[in-house]
């Protein structure tokens, strides 16, 4: 029989901050999104104050002040490095692992004897905590979906010591009955609404739901979901994540920007950055999509538009990307619209090694390649954006730059930022 | 029949194979025992970091540990996976603050000792929020 575990880091971003700042223990802590716009992680104390996931900061100001809540901007360098350490630690304990997100990993425990599983799970909790300072919850079950349900139980009930195993059917029923249907892996918001209208409120109701009805609404994924909930594994561990489908760079601005020049500078920077990402992955893109959005909280004036540019040949050349992005933006820019978000997505990616030759190519590919190589070498050796394109603007600081007012130091990735002890 | 070039592959040049430059002389008789010890380069990480997932760097402020050869602004290599034993230099959390001190265990009692006569030992009595953050394994002192 198959057996999976989901290891889920508790309040991951908050736990990372606490690891380097132990005085935050017991205090309400929130981590804010890019631009300090809304709460993306909350400590249990902050959850208890009623601070919701994704709550906009302007609605929280009073609560944050009154309860002396510690606020941090997202520190992705730190979270990424801590995630790497958690994964390294898990990799030393189990052979098969799938990194599902920055704070969740699936493990395949099929090769372990049943009687060794509780001990192994306990070891996972204590070793990850000891090595990295991050508390984790471990859920065990015969399918990935059930292991996720179990991890939710382990997190919600501290008396379980961070581990919940729903392999046994009696435990499975209790866990499913205590899990709201919207929390089940793969149940989206619309499907949740649909199910609730039919009186299906818990994961257990769903597991017992009419197969034909679920299949009609959700297709093959729906029947797989039912199988997974009843203990028949449909999703194996994906140890090799599928090749990257696209590369994206997008940012939300702190305040709406309608100045065309500033917007073009921002977009040009994203194009440069996206091209750089491509080159580090040794990829080229055939297609670029540019999107622009106004403030979505102002519904009456809301504006959203996208434009697509197809390159004559797949490219990762920064100047081609910038030209493409700016010409696409030409078509979707509107005067007097305060834009809140611009983004670039590159699609139809192909490896550099498969470059097709164009008979009448306007770009000298060899020259472009050596220019990009020189650009990357200088920026790697001397720091980001030592060399860049003038279209991205020359002066700092810029109105559209991401706001990080409360970012903690990069404790693990920058020598100037490492922790100080007395 | 026309053959079209559809795809051109780039030569793989990224991988460089290094060979040891110096090996034992070829001699008659017994092979040189040194041949078993052909070395690559020396990696400082391998010397200082035994458990990459659990190793962190911290910087020292203050002079409380100068007797242990730990000077202000030195960088400490801290391994969280090690058990703190008596006399080990550790990073501790004392009431929410991080500190580097020598860990002393006397029976059931735990003390944190400075290596500087200007600082008295502190006993970690009940009521003090005390935790071991990690064990110091080496000191990096930039001249």
From TrEMBL, chain A:
<feature type="domain" description="UmuC">
    <location>
        <begin position="4"/>
        <end position="188"/>
    </location>
</feature>
<dbReference type="InterPro" id="IPR025188">
    <property type="entry name" value="DUF4113"/>
</dbReference>
<dbReference type="Pfam" id="PF00817">
    <property type="entry name" value="IMS"/>
</dbReference>
<keyword id="KW-0234">DNA repair</keyword>
<dbReference type="InterPro" id="IPR043128">
    <property type="entry name" value="Rev_trsase/Diguanyl_cyclase"/>
</dbReference>
<keyword id="KW-0227">DNA damage</keyword>
<dbReference type="InterPro" id="IPR043502">
    <property type="entry name" value="DNA/RNA_pol_sf"/>
</dbReference>
<keyword id="KW-0741">SOS mutagenesis</keyword>
<comment type="similarity">
    <text>Belongs to the DNA polymerase type-Y family.</text>
</comment>
<dbReference type="GO" id="GO:0003887">
    <property type="term" value="F:DNA-directed DNA polymerase activity"/>
</dbReference>
<dbReference type="GO" id="GO:0042276">
    <property type="term" value="P:error-prone translesion synthesis"/>
</dbReference>
<dbReference type="InterPro" id="IPR001126">
    <property type="entry name" value="UmuC"/>
</dbReference>
<dbReference type="GO" id="GO:0003684">
    <property type="term" value="F:damaged DNA binding"/>
</dbReference>
<dbReference type="InterPro" id="IPR050116">
    <property type="entry name" value="DNA_polymerase-Y"/>
</dbReference>
<dbReference type="Pfam" id="PF13438">
    <property type="entry name" value="DUF4113"/>
</dbReference>
<protein>
    <submittedName>
        <fullName>DNA polymerase V</fullName>
    </submittedName>
</protein>
<dbReference type="Pfam" id="PF11799">
    <property type="entry name" value="IMS_C"/>
</dbReference>
<dbReference type="GO" id="GO:0009432">
    <property type="term" value="P:SOS response"/>
</dbReference>
<dbReference type="GO" id="GO:0005829">
    <property type="term" value="C:cytosol"/>
</dbReference>
<dbReference type="InterPro" id="IPR036775">
    <property type="entry name" value="DNA_pol_Y-fam_lit_finger_sf"/>
</dbReference>
<dbReference type="GO" id="GO:0006281">
    <property type="term" value="P:DNA repair"/>
</dbReference>
<keyword id="KW-0742">SOS response</keyword>
UniProtKB/TrEMBL annotation, chain B:
<comment type="similarity">
    <text>Belongs to the peptidase S24 family.</text>
</comment>
<dbReference type="InterPro" id="IPR039418">
    <property type="entry name" value="LexA-like"/>
</dbReference>
<dbReference type="GO" id="GO:0006281">
    <property type="term" value="P:DNA repair"/>
</dbReference>
<keyword id="KW-0742">SOS response</keyword>
<keyword id="KW-0227">DNA damage</keyword>
<keyword id="KW-0068">Autocatalytic cleavage</keyword>
<dbReference type="GO" id="GO:0016787">
    <property type="term" value="F:hydrolase activity"/>
</dbReference>
<keyword id="KW-0234">DNA repair</keyword>
<dbReference type="InterPro" id="IPR015927">
    <property type="entry name" value="Peptidase_S24_S26A/B/C"/>
</dbReference>
<dbReference type="Pfam" id="PF00717">
    <property type="entry name" value="Peptidase_S24"/>
</dbReference>
<keyword id="KW-0378">Hydrolase</keyword>
<dbReference type="InterPro" id="IPR006197">
    <property type="entry name" value="Peptidase_S24_LexA"/>
</dbReference>
<dbReference type="InterPro" id="IPR036286">
    <property type="entry name" value="LexA/Signal_pep-like_sf"/>
</dbReference>
<dbReference type="GO" id="GO:0009432">
    <property type="term" value="P:SOS response"/>
</dbReference>
<dbReference type="GO" id="GO:0003677">
    <property type="term" value="F:DNA binding"/>
</dbReference>
<protein>
    <submittedName>
        <fullName>SOS response UmuD protein. Serine peptidase. MEROPS family S24</fullName>
    </submittedName>
</protein>
<dbReference type="InterPro" id="IPR050077">
    <property type="entry name" value="LexA_repressor"/>
</dbReference>
<feature type="domain" description="Peptidase S24/S26A/S26B/S26C">
    <location>
        <begin position="20"/>
        <end position="136"/>
    </location>
</feature>
<dbReference type="GO" id="GO:0006355">
    <property type="term" value="P:regulation of DNA-templated transcription"/>
</dbReference>
